[in-house]
Design brief:
By secondary structure, this protein is mainly alpha-helical. The chain has a single domain (about 5-180, about 195-394), classed as Growth Hormone, Chain: A. About 75% of the residues lie in helices and about 0% in strands. The protein is built from 18 helices and no strands. The longest helix is centred in the middle third of the chain and has 30 residues, at about 205-235.
Length: about 400
Amino acid sequence: MSNTPVNYLRLMALMFLEFFIWGAWIVPVSSYMNATLAFTGAQIGWICGASALGALISPLFLGYVADRFFATERLLAALHLAGAVCLCLAPQQTTFPALMTLIVIDALCYMPTLPLCNNLVFRHIDKSERFSWFMIGGTTGWIVAGLMVGFFFGEKDGAFFYLAGGAQAVLAVYCLTLPHTPPRGAGKEGRDIFGLTAVKLLKDPAFLVFAVSIPLVTISKTFYTTWTNAFLAEIKMPKPTALMTLCQVSELLTMIVLPWFIAKLGLKRILMIGMAVWALRFFAFGSMHGPVVIAGLLLHGLSYGLVVTGASIYAARLVPPAMSARAQSFISMLIFGVGMFLGAQLAGFVGDAYRGEGGRLHDWTAIWGWGAVIALAACILFGIGGKDPKAVEA
């Protein structure tokens, strides 16, 4: 694929739809389950953590498949089509087991597409640090989804699932028009069916610290994913889902300047700053003061952009081309699998522990305090033992 503006826009459109789908349902679903379905905190945690189950199980295997057997764009099309069916059936479910089943199946289909999209973009750009520019498309997709849900669909009746499912069906078709991305490891011998050769990176002590720190900070991120929409609704902030798009406004700015920041500061410092800002955001939420809470929403985009996008670039710089899909899948498993799964369970437990009278959550300062402490622990750990990728390669 030639590096032309048109082809770059095609890749940005891929990321736009990819994150539109997720943002259209994962943000409002906690309010829907809390206020409409009357699920418990633990049940809300399981639903919000279902994506993590998918990220734990399927990305490594499908990363291996993409590296060895099938073109990435065709694999993406098949996975998105299956996921679209699940999301369109989800709003018809009113019990926890039924909704949980569909969300888990969707997660098994959707979560592998995150690293596969990353891999496809990395395959068709010339410099890894420019990956953040394509994530602008993903951030924009999340913003548009939030505004559409906030102003037109709402969080009360589950109609946002139809919006997400329809978008996923469109993306399934669009993937077939993407640049051909054949497997780089085709024809090579290997029995690594589950992509576990990526785990050999853990032999490097610095990468091991990275691999522990990233899911640790993601645990704190899951507090945000699980409870922010319900938190904003409970403290009477207007149109919570639309308001949360402020996070992506700052994320857009972060993606634009991230290559410059990486060049000036290095990836280790970028990741540390992102982790520290994550903690600061939770302190802002814990203030319970409207303007400070809004400032915290703006900080989320900065922290997410630095940590999650920085981690993908980190992995892309470390591995040989024949392992590129597996490396992205391994990082995805750490972030969206291990971190989100543990985080969802802890967030659900903490939510139940600080639930007030009448089933209403009220001690938000304590809830956000847990998230802040975890993020600071990850920052300190990575600061002590982490390295920049160039140092690891040497």
